[in-house]
Amino acid sequence: MDIVYKKGEGSMLIPEFESPKGIRQTGKYGTMRKCYLFRNHRHRYEDMLLEGTLSEHIQKIDSEAVDMLARLTERMERENPPPEGLSFQERTIHFREIHLEAERIVLDEIVYWP
Fold this sequence. Notes:
Helix 1 (28-40) crosses helix 2, helix 1 packs across helix 3 and helix 3 crosses helix 4. The protein has one domain. It has 4 helices and 2 strands, in the order ββαααα. Strands 1-2 form a two-stranded antiparallel ribbon. By secondary structure, the protein is mainly alpha-helical. The radius of gyration is 21 Å and the shape is flat.
């Protein structure tokens, strides 16, 4: 295998690597789902691994969780806007609490669902 290098700063050579086609990096919720299956549903985890469906399942869960989190956060912010007169820090705390509640729902309904 020949490695191709490109010239970096000064005289430094940087190898050029390509990631395999169709493989995406697993996000936060996909990684959490994978750990949950490994620790709590080992048989299912191993079956999916052997069948070659684990990676697809992890990507699907991650995508669904991110989409649901965005929808929930938007809806919750619309239904519960911050009161007038809050400082920047208080507004930030308000929106952070909404995000945490939406994330708790996502974890319960998608990530940690057997």
